[in-house]
Amino acid sequence: MAKVTGAVDKIDYAELDAILAKYAGKQGVLIPVMQDVQNLYNYLPKAALEYVSEKLGIPLAEIYGVVTFYSLFHLNPRGKYISRCCQGTACHVRGGASILNALEAQLGIKPGETTMDGRFTLETVACLGACGLAPVMQIDEDTHGRMTPEKVAKVLAEYN
Amino acid sequence: MKSLADLAALRAKCQAEIAAREKGKTLVIIGMGTCGIAAGAREVQKALEEELAAHNVDNVIIKQTGCIGMCEQEVLVDIARFGEARVTYGKVKPEHVKALVEEHIINGRVVPELVVGRFPDANQDKGFGDVPKYSDIEFCKKQQHLVLEHCGVIDPDSLEEYVALGGYEGLAKALTAMKPEEVIDQVKKSGLRGRGGGGFPTGMKWQFCRNSVADQKYVICNADEGDPGAFMDRSVMEGDPHRMVEGMAIGGYAMGATEGYIYARAEYPLAIKRLRAAIAAAEQAGFLGENIFGSGFNFHLQVKEGAGAFVCGEETALMQSIEGKRGMPRPRPPFPAVSGLWGKPSNINNVETFANVAMIIVKGADWYAGMGTEGSKGTKVFALTGKIKHTGLAEVEMGTTIREIIFEVGGGIANDKKFKAVQIGGPSGGCLPESMLDLPVDYDSLIKAGAMMGSGGLVVMDETTCMVDVARFFLTFTQSESCGKCTPCREGTKRMLEILNRIIDGKGREGDIELLEDLAGVIKDTALCGLGQTAPNPVLATLRYFRDEYEAHIKEHRCPAGACSALTKFVISDRCKGCGLCKRNCPVQAISGEPGKQHMIDTTKCIKCGACMANCPFKAIDRE
Questions:
Q1: What angle do CA B251, B314, A97 make, to 5 degrees?
Q2: Which residue from B72, B268, B481 is facing A132, i.e. has the nearest CB?
Q3: Disulfide check for B493: which of B200, B246, B479, B520 has CB 3.0–4.6 Å away?
């Protein structure tokens, strides 16, 4: 599936129906449904939430409450690549803050923001569990270990 | 799968098939845990395949395995020629592959510069006597791999390999030869305590759930390993997922539950993938599903992905999250054993706890209770990270001292720096100084010392780590992860964090330390759940052992470790030769200067990352 970047202006309801059908008749499906919707659009468009709310019979306010509770859900469009800087303990004592500083300086954005060209969104993550290779950062699914501030630009350059 | 005999037949079949398939072949086994892949395991595999093809070598089977716990040695590649020793190579890069293929695979000669060790096997020593056995390597000597016995050894995606090594024997024995009460009895007698942090006796917890009468009960595995710095659960799930499935099914039988959930963090995509594959394979083989081993016992298991909330590691919050709600804790009682998921009796244990169950059933409670200390039995897996030489996973018998773990297994402090403290137990735990290193690790002695077992993260810190900053680090974490339901945690941690922030910014006031202690006491006594009740621990423990550092920040505006950036700055001294290396390595172009002349740092641009200092060949950059 091609990855969507930027805001979605048209929702394909058939795709949402296909997601909902997967969970039909099951209990406690809101979070997995939201995860699938986000996988589809890279964020949670309002129109999609309204549709899911109607179909699942869960008030939109409750859905909003749930998606804002969990850090992996996003209500705003995100960049083409998600760059996550690990802030775990092992990374912290091995200079994780300097990696985040270098990322912020290179990209010119703060965590939670997206670059003007829509290429990168910068996020922080509590721990990636790759502590043996600390400090660690991740771009999409690729984990980059044994980072140094100087290596940041090199890693970013691999993603166009 | 209808009887013990069926399992025995299946095991014989698996062993025969594996032997037939691998006869005469050379095995190449690549560590494909998250760490291995991050270190470049896929690139190494690709290079290997190309190199083998270039040499027309076709009697090689390339397999994957999980994490053996030697993170700093990744990428790890094992090579075993048919009938010869299995030798492990470490820090393998694509450029090393040519030597491995030409020397070891083709000619049977070890490549000494990359060798880590070999799997001990008396029959296969020939020609490999110079390669140290695993049991003789410093990192492994003090270790005892029980929970991790298969991690880094078998292919986690292969039910066949798990069964061939005796897998599902515990489930078979429980279901065909034991009553549920007898299973609980064995778990009680073994002395197994919850590995997720609290250390509650597992058998008792199971008994409570068994005693509850209901039409439906649930077994839940807490795989929301949120403690930053801990990754043993990830390694077990990635490296030996069937062990989890088996442990949970035994638990389900003992408690009378037919449904199980594994609640895993979404940050562990590989673990989730392998667990799902293991569940599907176990269903296919009849280890899950209806009428398992002809016992009439049914058990179904599914994985639920978390969505990024640390508080969901708390059991009542975790169940809310499975139900699709905001993961907020609720007061107990009622305990989950009485009213848990969807109001039904439920039992929650952590990954490592379930991973211990099958071997207790197979080998017996007495065997298990023979290991460890009086109050803490068996082994514990620790994640060794931070400023330590050998980062990785260490599984040691309970009662091993922290000094042995750090200085023998872990090889001591990296870069010849001086040991300062070890943080144990994650955000709920505490930092212990040098004087506490001879403490044996067990649940009770750690609590007494002001730390806790937690999930078993050991983050080692050296003299350049500021303890006030460490306390702030953990409080920043718990503060942002506080769910906001109860006031002491929501407001209290925020106020504590504000105080720590101003101390670190050099604006600390007289009386701040006492105020921190006061707030900490109130939060501990009044917060609703474990997250809040333990959130002040890192502050209290650092105050207990490193009070002088707090005082130096407040009274002298000085960071003794030279780590707090508001209290330090980088300057280039007249030792500078103008080589320009610092300028080139500065990620924010804060350094200016002409070649051959002393350079300067623009402190308004400097982000204090230290890259200039690290790269200066003349040690001309000082931190003031």
A1: 125
A2: B72
A3: B479
